[in-house]
Specification:
- The chain is α/β, with parallel strands linked by helices.
- The protein folds into two domains: 5-16 and 100-228, 3-Layer(aba) Sandwich (Rossmann fold), CATH 3.40.50; 17-95, DNA polymerase, domain 1.
- The protein is 49% helix and 12% strand.
- It has ten helices and six strands.
- The protein has a six-stranded parallel sheet with strand order 3-2-1-4-5-6, with helices on both faces.
- Helix 6 (125-135) links the parallel strand 2 and strand 3 (143-146).
- Helix 3 crosses helix 4 (83-95).
- The longest helix has 19 residues, at 38-56.
Length: 229
């Protein structure tokens, strides 16, 4: 398959969101003089994960995710702080966290020479643009599609329909979706009728019921796939 268009997820694929998240949480909790111990972090991660899971299946919108998680956390732990204001401060700190997955820039720079690159992300617009520009990835892509701007999110078909409509002369058979999330990136790509490449660094087994086109554990492994296509 001769790929011309590559759709690349941001967090967990190109950007090291975990590192950005940990640094932003540390800085924001410190700013508000709230201790961030293992118990608080564990409860936040549980609440956050559950909210994002509900968002991905369309049960709640992104605003509800963002402006509920710290409110719920503080209520549960009896912390007397404004969770909404805390979220705004956290997003600002998160936007400063520009950390790349190992090899991401080098691989993108190489792919930039032969393919049209697009970022497709469910992140918050201001935060994602800030991080992409700080890492230099923004200059390597033709466009960035953020769910917050579109009104739909991966894996919804409407999200991909919008993306396809904005890419000139797009050919589905020459388009590849690359991402780390089975539930949003890979499922979304499959449902949209394009090939998929699942990137993950762990040893999770590929689901038998998902017709994933490629599976890689290192971003550099993407290069022979594209060169050989």
């Amino acid at each position: 398959m001769n790929y011309k268009t590559l759709l690349l997820d941001a967090d967990g694929t190109l950007l090291d969101f975990h590192k950005s998240e940990q640094m932003a949480l540390r800085d924001t909790f410190a700013h508000y003089h709230i201790p961030l111990n293992d118990e608080v972090l564990e409860r936040y991660e549980h609440i956050n994960h559950d909210l994002w899971r509900r968002f991905e299946v369309g049960k709640i919108n992104k605003k509800t995710v963002l402006y509920s998680r710290f409110v719920m956390l503080f209520e549960e732990l009896h912390i007397k702080e404004d969770g909404v204001q805390f979220e705004d401060a956290y997003q600002k700190a998160l936007g400063e966290g520009a950390y790349l997955i190992e090899g991401a820039y080098e691989v993108m720079e190489e792919l930039h020479r032969c393919c049209d690159l697009y970022i497709v992300t469910n992140g918050v617009s201001a935060t994602q643009y800030s991080r992409l520009k700080k890492t230099g990835l923004y200059d390597l892509v033709r466009d960035v599609f953020v769910s917050e701007d579109i009104g739909y999110q991966k894996p919804q078909r409407e999200y991909f329909d919008h993306v396809f409509s904005k890419i000139p002369s797009l050919e589905k058979k020459r388009t590849l979706m690359i991402g780390d999330s089975l539930s949003s990136d890979i499922k979304g790509g499959i449902c949209a009728g394009i090939d998929t490449c699942w990137y993950h660094q762990d040893i999770t087994q590929k689901p038998a019921d998902m017709p994933i086109t490629y599976e890689i554990h290192d971003l550099h492994d993407l290069l022979p796939i594209i060169r050989g296509s």
